Amino acid sequence: MRAKIIGTGSYVPEKVITNYDLEKMVDTTDEWIRTRTGMVERRIASNNEAASDLAIMAAKRALKDADVKAKDIEMILLATATPDMLFPSTACIVQTALGIKGAAAFDISAACTGFIYALSITEEYIKSGKYKTILLITTELLTRYIDWTDRSTCILFGDGASAMVIQGTNSRDGGVISTHIHADGSYADFISVQGGGSRCVVSHESVDKKLHFMKMKGNETFKMAVKMMTATAREALSYNGFSVDDINLFIPHQANIRIINAVSKKLGIAPEKIYINIEKYGNTSAVSIPLALDEVVKGGRLSKGDLILMVAFGGGLTWGSALVRW
Length: 326
Ligand code: ACO
Prior knowledge:
The chain is an alpha/beta fold. It contains 11 helices and 13 strands. It has a 5-stranded mixed β-sheet, sandwiched between helices. A 4-stranded mixed β-sheet has the order 8-13-12-11, sandwiched between helices.
């Protein structure tokens, strides 16, 4: 049994923040942001939108695209670093809104690698025969955890959600060929939001110390991202006996254009095979790869049989890759 993506959907909030808007908020320039990150604008959720609201919109679009009824979904797997609340899971909130009563529903946390982790879990559930039809969702509102006075992080992130319906098939025509997921928690302090967890509950003191905001060691993260994304891309290719020339489309996590270019150069991937939309959305964490995939699908850029390589890297540190035959 192979896991096949049979429908995709995504949703980004309406409000756009451009580099010029950021120029008015912190000591930065459009030129610095464009050249150092590749970003031009990003979306930001409105005050009354939470992770589940974005997720529901994306999920409805994916269900429609797949022509699958909510009642046919057996499991909802939702990757996010920015859930509606500590518990219950955002997956449960989405489940109720979609009317998928009784199906298993849970969140997974792997920061920007959340999609690859979720795809890997989905693949295993389907391969084992446990479930046939799974709704995989990613949703992120990282802008809620940004210190808007910190120019080194506030320019980087955007909000959004994506979803896909994944179904088991006996056909070898297409589907998920392999997934590889990794982590190294000794680098946990590279990207973190410390406030609000059980080690540092929300208090006046934690807020005064700005512990509810994301902290990131940008430079160190950059180097690890290039190294690990390259390694896991090579791992996916060699595990399946493919060469880089077999790849039709490369969708890397959209964290920084310089990371994407460095990884692509090391792998020797031709520029026309790399999908980049970082200029429109910034870093949307676990959403970036499936959001890109949805754009590619809707743009009619994929043909049956195309081989797609997806690689991600994020807080944890976590990283991973997936190879999908379309
Ligand atoms: N505008 C202008 N200047 C800035 C800005 C800004 N927005 N931000 C930083 N600078 C300055 C710094 O203060 C520094 O100035 P100095 O030399 O006078 O000290 C200078 O620019 C260079 O700073 P660096 O941090 O070395 O800049 P760098 O080229 O590394 O770019 C960036 C920073 C964009 C954060 C980069 O390191 C990066 O993309 N890192 C990876 C982030 C990532 O991959 N995250 C993925 C996971 S996120 C997750 O999992 C949720």
